[in-house]
Amino acid sequence: MASSSTSSPPSNLPLKPIPGDYGLPFFGPIKDRLDYFYFQGQDKFFQDRINKHKSTIFKTNMPPGPFIASNPNVIAVLDAVSFPVLFDTSKVEKRNVFVGTFFPSVSFTGGHRVCAYLDPSEPKHSSLKSFILSTLASKHDKFIPLFKTCVSELFIELEDQMAEKGEANYNTLNDTLAFNFFFRLFCDKNPNDTKIASKGPSFANKWLFPQLAPITTLRLPKFLNPLEDLLLHTFPLPFFVAKSDYQKLYDAFNKFSGPILDDAERFGIQRDEACHNLVFLSTFNSYGGLKTGFPALIKWVGLTGEKLHRQLADEIRTVVKAEGGVTFAALERMALTKSVVYEALRIEPPVPFQYGKAKVDMVIHSHDAAYEIKKGNMIFGYQPFATKDPRVFENPEEFVGHRFVGEGEKLLKYVYWSNGRETEDPTAENKQCPAKNLVVLLSRVFLVEFFHRYDTFTVEAGKLLTGSSATIKSLTKATSI
Questions:
Q1: Where on the phi/psi map is residue 163: left (φ > 0), alpha (ψ -120 to 50), or beta?
Q2: Could you tell me which of 85, 282, 294, 350 has the fewest CB atoms within 10 Å of its CB?
Q3: Which residues in 432-441 are b (16+ Cβ under 10 Å) and which e?
Q4: Which residues share a beta bridge with 381?
Q5: What Pfam families is this protein classified in (predicted)?
Q6: Per-domain residue ranges of the chain
Q7: What DSSP string describes 55-111?
Q8: What does the pLDDT read at residue 57?
Q9: Which of 79, 451, 419, 465 is nearest to 297 (CA)?
Q10: How many alpha carbons fall within 13 Å on the CB side of residue 61?
Q11: β-strand partners of 113
Q12: Whether 379 contacts 87, CB under 8 Å
């Protein structure tokens, strides 16, 4: 349970200088980049510095550094108390920091700075986010029935793979599920009935990769690390490597999402800009989020074991029978199912990083000390450390399915996956993920559909370019419903 100090840090905390340093210009960022990707790895990179400085707030450099990012210097905030400063847009500017200390070329988004890269102080942010929130609200009635259809298609393919190979690569199936759902949601068209056909996930992945390459590693053999570092982390990959794939996505959305694009004019947004924002919302935000989020959910639920599976199946089948189907009301009654979704988002958030540039001089707090941050400093948060803060969560490294049931709901304010607290909602004035509530809903529906059809399963977990891999090794169909 959370300690009292996490809610409002005492005002008498000692004011300390921020520990750490950035090293020599050019060479310091390179050293930190090599540590981060190759010599230490992500979590050890941060944990070693916490141990060295005896502080969860410190100075460091974040990749990619030279020559992609002009200034890699950050102040890291790695605990549950300090991390939320990144949500306070009166204190931090979110301009062009969506993916880190660098800003991908606007060529990737049709020459427009899409909503994700705008600070709320910029006039266009409010109109674009209002447009996005309005679009999602208009599709509210389609969320559950459409997603159930897409999940049913995934299960058929999953069972075919299990029958043929004795195992199934969940990630590949999930990519198809995620792309098809969002394309059908916004375009009212099955991508298989368009020129995109079954290639949607491939087009999306090819467009996403060059934008995220500076902060990823391919996990190649060690002798290839210098080559990878040169190719991915030293110079930005050009748009032309993804141009044709992105054009196909844009053309399809432009052709089939007409009513949404027509509505954009009501918000003062030109059709072309609206379409590029819609592609970004569907492909980067939504498809990209589920691409990492659902495999993590499957991984953790699978690894936790049969006891949790039995409890989920009992709850889900009992409530669905009582409610006469999978409805919003039914989902709200499933306390364990809700908790399992929140726990997956806590232990392995789909987006692990947050950035913001200090707009003003300020003082931030960890559990034990206060630190002064100057205007212009870049603040960086590594979310998995904040949401696994041992001063807030008991057994933070353990997946506890019941963690947020009953009194545990009070801990939801420390679940930060959406660039905001789980207890808050996205608005046109903040930077919280506009699809935050939809992601939670879809995660619940996925579990409901899964455990309505299957009793238990086993999984083999691994690591990918972004997020986890999940291979289904065994699958037991429901013996009774």
A1: alpha
A2: 85
A3: bbbbbbbbbb
A4: 77, 354
A5: p450 (PF00067)
A6: 4-477
A7: SSEEEEE-SS-TTT-S--EEEEE-STTTGGGGG-TTTEE-TT-SSSSS---GGGGTT
A8: 98
A9: 451
A10: 25
A11: none
A12: no
Strand-by-strand arrangement of the 378-382 sheet: 57-61, 73-77, 378-382, 353-358, 92-93
Who's near 27: CB < 8 A, 6+ residues apart? Answer: none
Q: Tokens for 139?
A: 């599709």
Q: In this structure, which long-range contacts are made by residues 29-35, counting pairs with CB atoms below 8 Å and at least 24 apart in sequence?
A: 29/61, 29/65, 29/66, 29/72, 29/73, 30/65, 30/66, 32/60, 32/61, 32/62, 32/63, 32/65, 32/72, 33/61, 33/63, 33/64, 33/65, 33/72, 33/229, 33/233, 34/229
Q: Which residues does residue 168 pair with via DSSP β-bridges, in sequence order?
A: 472
Give phi and psi for 82, each to the nearest 5: -80, -30
CB 83 within 8 A of CB 356: no
CATH architecture of 4-477: Orthogonal Bundle (1.10)
Instruction: Pull the structure tokens for residue 47.
Output: 């944990």
> Which positions make up the binding site for heme?
433
Distance, in Å, from the CA atom of 306 to the CA atom of 309, rounded to the nearest integer, reads 5
* Strand intervals (E) in 157-200: 168-169
Whole-number mean pLDDT of the chain?
A: 96
Cα–Cα distance, 432 to 365 (Å, whole number)? 22
205 has pLDDT over 70: yes
Structure tokens at 169: 């690569």
The predicted-structure confidence for 211-238, as pLDDT tens digits, reads as follows: 999 999 999 999 999 999 999 999 999 9
pTM of the model: 0.95
Q: Read off the DSSP letter of residue 31.
A: H
104: its two tokens: 């991908």
Q: Across the strands, what pairs with 73?
A: 61
Q: What is the mean pLDDT of residues 315-320?
A: 98
Contact status, residue 446 vs residue 151, Cβ threshold 8 Å? yes
The token duo for 100 is 């880190």
- Separation between Cα atoms, residue 276 and residue 225, nearest integer Å: 35
Helices 170-187 and 143-165: angle between axes, nearest 10 degrees: 150
* Residues in binding site: 433
Q: What are the helix (H) ranges across 333-459?
A: 335-347, 383-386, 436-453
